[in-house]
Design a protein that fits this description.
The structure is a single chain. By secondary structure, this protein is an alpha+beta fold. It has four helices and nine strands, in the order E-H-E-E-E-E-H-E-E-H-E-H-E. It folds into two domains: about 90 residues, GMP Synthetase, Chain A, domain 3; about 60 residues, no CATH class. Helix 1 runs antiparallel to helix 2. It is globular.
Length: about 170
Amino acid sequence: MYVPFEGLSAESRVWVYQGNRPFTSDELSAAANMLRSFCESWNAHGQALKSSYKIEKNQFVIMAVDEDFHNPSGCSIDSSVGVLRQIKSLIGVDFLDRTKVSFLLDDKVMLIPLNEVKSSFASGRLKASTITFNNLVPSKSEYEAKWQIPVENSWMAKYLTKATLTP
């Protein structure tokens, strides 16, 4: 059963999927319709899931389930990945490519291949204060508080020299 994202409890489980490019306005509308339709019928073992979605920065899909209402099963979680594959088939935005890291540069989401992250720090393109996206946040409350974080607070801090860290 679909509910507005704001109506889900703070402890609701979330999954963040990063698109390989932003949606166009037409694609955004089509994707939102597909996600809403999916959430309206999303269930686990015949039990409706209290669920929602959010599209952020025209490029991220956040799926959420209120586990206090009913727990999702492995199959139901797999079905949520299925709707993302349907979106890819229809629109061409891939949400399952894990070879790029997203950063917020000049108010735009930029994807940098994993093998270029270290050199992007060395060249100064990325800094300790650059915002990155923690797509592994487990709950709605953590998504709201810790999804967008400075690089120095992320797993990528290991690529920073001590001189680039904020005191």
